[in-house]
Amino acid sequence: MARADPYRQFRFRIEGIEQAGFSECTFADTTTDPVEYREGNELPVFRKLSGLTKFGNITLKWGITDDMKLYEWRRRVIEHGAEGERKSVSIVLIDEAGNDKSRWEIVQAWPSKYDPTDFSGKGNEVAIETLEIVHEGFTRVK
Questions:
Q1: Considering only 13-22, 48-57, 132-141, which range has the smallest mean pLDDT?
Q2: How far apart are CA 84 and CA 35, in angstroms?
Q3: Contact 134, 97 (CB under 8 A)
Q4: CATH code: domain of residue 114
Q5: Residue-wise DSSP of the chain
Q6: Is residue 7 included in any domain, yes or no?
Q7: How far apart are CA 23 and CA 25, in angstroms?
Q8: Can you give the pTM of this predicted structure?
Q9: Are 46 and 37 in contact (CB under 8 A)?
Q10: Which residue range is the domain that position 74 belongs to?
């Protein structure tokens, strides 16, 4: 039987956001809060019920170019609110042969934070922009 090695994390793409490429995507987590509950006639032990489910934010990083589409998306949210700016986004993991292997569908995504680069005359690093995206859930579909 052939061994199935895990996929590496360095090949991915983001669909639904127009951008040449991203150097980093910090994916969100999902948690469901437990709610402790006890009725008066039960043993003095709490039952654990499921509460609200929360989805963490997604952070995208890329090297600055002349393209301002992501900044403009954030600016529109600042000026008019998120209602007209929500998008469906996909994060796709790619194997070393270039095939799509895993896909997460993110719903109702919009940028909540934009962080331009820091500058330093002492370094030679690439200038990096950061965009934090909030959303209302994701599903792994592949």
A1: 13-22
A2: 34
A3: no
A4: 2.30.110.20
A5: ----PPPPSS-EEEESS--S--SEEE---EEEEEEEE--TTS-S--EEEEEEEEE--EEEEEE--S--HHHHHHHHHHHH-SGGG-EEEEEEEE-TTS-EEEEEEEEEEEEEEEEPPP--TT--PPPEEEEEEE-S-EEE--
A6: no
A7: 7
A8: 0.85
A9: yes
A10: 12-37+45-140
- Tokens encoding 132: 């934090």
Whether residue 3 lies inside any domain: the answer is no
Domain annotation covers residue 6: no
Structure tokens at 126: 């690439």
Residue partners of 87: CB distance under 8 A and separation at least 6: 16, 17, 108, 109, 110
Task: Count structural domains, the chain.
Answer: 1
Express each pLDDT in 77-124 by its tens digit. 999 999 999 999 999 999 989 999 999 999 999 999 999 999 989 989
Burial letters 71-106, b for 16+ CB under 10 A, else e = eebbeebeeeeeeeeeeebbbebbeeeeeeeeebbb
Token code pair at residue 58: 């997604």
Q: Would the CA dihedral through 28, 22, 63, 18 be positive or negative?
A: negative
**Which two tokens mark 75?**
């600016």
The two three-digit tokens of residue 84, written as one number: 């007209």
